[in-house]
Amino acid sequence: MMRHIHYPEKFPDEKTEGKWMARQSITGWYIKEGKIELQAYPKNAEEQEAVLRAKTMMEEDLSDVKPMLKSFRFPCELKLEMQDIFLKGKAVAKIHEATPFKGMDFYGESDVELFKGRETDVRRVEEHIYTYPIILLVGSSGVGKTSLIHAGLFPKLKISGWECIYLRPFGPL
Q1: Is the model's pTM score more than 0.70?
Q2: Could you give the 3-state DSSP secondary structure of residue 81?
């Protein structure tokens, strides 16, 4: 015999800010050692608080069905694995203050003086631009396409009087 249990939603509607903060921070779940483990990576203290509230509400919901889950040997304990990503972000920012290297972040127009070693590539793209005003720059992720455009090509074209616009497919306008 199967019983159905219906629970009213604890968040009043989808526009409730805390619910969406928690959903953005909780990146997944898995079962480990008989427990349901949630993984969360909050970006700030407010998101961390939203995740903790969401976990408490999930535990309340689980408490009602815990006996039935146990009888079928399903996991019914909830564990939260929360990474302090916002603290790590602050540490990384301090490291970036001490070094001009961007890591996986791209160089922008304000970084022209730091962007070195790609002069030949910039010149080749610039030469093509004057002949073919629309070109496609393709390469693997992380090879420096965006840096080449922002810190190499755009400053040179702007000196020549060009207006430069950068668009990414599916990116914000």
Answers
A1: no
A2: strand
